[in-house]
Every structure is written in C-alpha cells, then in structure tokens.
Amino acid sequence: MILDQLSASAAIASLHPLFPKAFAYLHAFDVQTEDGKYELQGQDLVAIVQRYETAPSVDKLWEAHQIYGDIQVVYQGLEYCGHADQRTLVVTHPYLAEKDVEKYAAPSAPSALLTLGRGNFAVFYPQDGHQPGVWVGTSGPILKVVIKFRI
C-alpha cells in the first residue's frame, strides 16, 4: 500500500509500467466527467469514475483483488479507508473472477486507517485488503476515481 499526495506521484511512476499513463490521467482529470468506466489502455488500465455517499464502517465490506491493483483518488469529499493484510482477513464472499474481487469480514483492527481527501492517492496491491467509502464522522458526498492497473 502507498499513500501520498497526487502532486508527488512522479516519485512512484517507475514502480509499474502503467503508472505514468495512469497518473497523467489523474492529473488531467476533469471533475465534470460522468460516472463510468473509461479504458485508458484496453483492459490493462481502466479508470472508474464514481460518486457516492460515505457510510459507517459497519456498512462497508472489506475487499481485495487478484488481477488488478487500485490507485484511488478522491477529488471531492473526505473518507476513511481501512487497510489490512489480505491474508489476515476472513472471506465472506468468495473470489469472483469476472469482477476481480473477494469480500471479507472486518478485522479485529485494521493495520491502518487512511484518510483520503482532495489531493491524496492510495495504491492497493493484491495483498492489500481495503475498506473504502467509510464516513469521517458523518455521511458525505465523494467524487473518486479508481484506476485499475493489471499487475
């Protein structure tokens, strides 16, 4: 897992061959873009634009992926995102290959509770169980882009 400021993304651009294109999209992102999936490089690099309301931690499932990693950027709003080693989580919904997701019960304690707000990004790899969309005190609107990059 990586957490940093979008303005500092050049420091990690060399960690994956798709990162330069992913971060170029994120830096140029227009907040007027409609919700949906946008192929940036076929199915290897996809941007998912989403707007939603944050919710209490008990209402948000944990998840992890096997084929793709996530770069998550919040452009409007503020949310918490839990993080824990995927190997320590208990499966509640087995892996669905067509959605590249496995769901988990909440751990007794996350290894980290990230605050994602305007200007932050988080990178999650397959070993990173994460719980996005958790409210910070009360429900609020979020505009987020999740970049799916093939591992």
Number of beta strands: 12
Main beta sheet strand tally, sense and closure = 6 strands, antiparallel
CATH topology: Jelly Rolls
Summed over residues and divided by their number, the pLDDT gives a mean of 96
CATH superfamily: YhcH/YjgK/YiaL
Provide the β-strand percentage band. over 45%
What is the approximate shape?
globular
- Rg over CA atoms: 15 Å
CATH architecture: Sandwich
Strand order of the largest sheet: 1-10-5-12-3-2
Helix content: under 10%
| Helix/sheet category | mainly beta
Low-confidence stretches: none
Number of discrete helical segments: 1
Query: What is the CATH class designation?
Result: Mainly Beta
Order of helices and strands: EHEEEEEEEEEEE
How many distinct domains? 1
Distance between the ends: 14 Å
How does this model look, in words?
The protein is mainly beta. It is built from 1 helix and 12 strands; from the N terminus they run βαβββββββββββ. The strands form 3 sheets. It has a 6-stranded antiparallel β-sheet, covered by helices on one side. The protein has a 3-stranded antiparallel β-sheet with strand order 4-8-7, with no helix packed on it. The mean pLDDT is 96.
